[in-house]
Amino acid sequence: MSDRELSASLLVVGGGLGGVAAALTAAKLGHQVVLTEETSWLGGQLTSQAVPSDEHPWIESRHISSGYRELRTRIRDYYRRNYPLTPAAAAEPKLNPGLGNVSRLCHEPRVGVAVIDELLAPYISAGRIIVLYHHVPIAATTDGDHVTSVTLDNNGNLVTVTAQLIVDATELGDLLELAGVEHVLGAEAQSETGEQFAAGTADPMDQQAITWCFPLEYRPGEDHTVDRPASYTHWKTHVDPFWPNPQLSWRKIDIRTMEGRENRIFEVDLDLPYAADLWHFRRIRARSQFDRSVIDTDISLVNWPNVDYWESPLIGPGTDKERALERCRELSLSYLHWMQTEAPNHEGGQGYPGLKLRPDLTGTADGLAMAPYIRESRRIRARKTILEQHVAVVDRPEGQGAEFFPDGVGVGHYNIDLHPSTAGVNYVNLEVYPFQIPLGALIPQRVRNLLPANKNIGTTHLTNGCYRLHPVEWSIGEAVGALAAQCLSTNSEPHAVADAAQQTEDLQRTLTGTLGVPVKWPDDIARTRPSQASNPTPVHAAPERRVKAG
After folding, report:
1. Whole-angstrom distance, CA of residue 87 vs CA of residue 221
2. pTM of the complete model beyond 0.90
């Protein structure tokens, strides 16, 4: 029995970017929302998982949603208001505090948290959004094809929330399992999807690696060496059949050639704006951007190939989630200990003991991110499943672009980017055209009042790899929030909106007009390969085969 009961028009379970965008959009459109989050930070991959935004070449253009643009603008303005930027950095309209290679906007996780709090503040004050932190979903009740309530655990205190509409914005699609919503886990068989790079047979245990990220400062001459983890020797000596060496190494797989190559932490002067070494890759604070009398060090975020944990999935038959999480943590700490003590350094010696964890930037005691970076989730059996052949350049007629979806409710772009998996499958990286988010991919086949708003939409194991990144997750959340608001205002259901052309068009008008959310790309961009864009993202050749562990 619950200790507390709540009711709301809309319940959003999971406070990642999709959940935040869904709650914020529904509140903007006049509805009351209960938003729950397992950790103490909203923002998911941007904040509690500490991953700088992976974005597309058009992210600084008008072809993104006004909501995501506001998020990015507020992050830059937060630095201008609160940090001792140099005059040149403060005056730069496209300020990038970290000057990281991965994104035009690399920043500290805490800044993302502060900005999300700012975005929600007026609606929390108005009573339209109630945020429940440290609430983990543990049960759901159903009545036929409807989910009627969700029970959450808050450190032993149970809260049951009933709602007319429920959004699963959890990182692993937890409500799909709890509520018995038909879903897919892991890799589909090629015979089911027709995707040329799909697995030969379906495998629920074929899930992308997770990563426990952490930010590092470098203070030469100081010693910040962490304790040697218990599993250190394993990570130092064990070699997986698809990887070129033990993970405690500077060598990794080059996804262009699928061969091993070395990539060290420091190759050049730290103050260069961009460089090909690991330090510059996800740098979230570049000291050159700030008054050096106050901020005299860089901070880089370690989300690098050799800390990907592919030993065991978190979910699926016979899995031990807690053990997998602990092993993932130990891999990250082992890699740090190796870098501090044994890694070949750029001076010809061993180790960088001056590498320093920054727990104050992650809100944790040990300096690792608050939560692991999750790349793959349970996925709904949707009315429309997005396939490789809808988006991948290698599968599309020359110059045609991605599949056009008349029911589009958002846009996005990223390569199909699959990291090594827990089934021993190596990287898959396919160039993709700019794509849409179809409404049908947000509608479960059976359940009438539950919507997905994270990595749990109607994609496949492959296409999840291009729909899982920050701006796409935000757009999914906006579409779900607008759809929920329309259903609540008209006393309708998501299936009815999808079934009626007029109602779908009403939703699209709300998105494009009221909310400033594009639902399709302009023709010239839609047919553009990323390698042809003015600011291209990295493009990688399609792998010739999937590489199974021996």
Report:
1. 30
2. yes
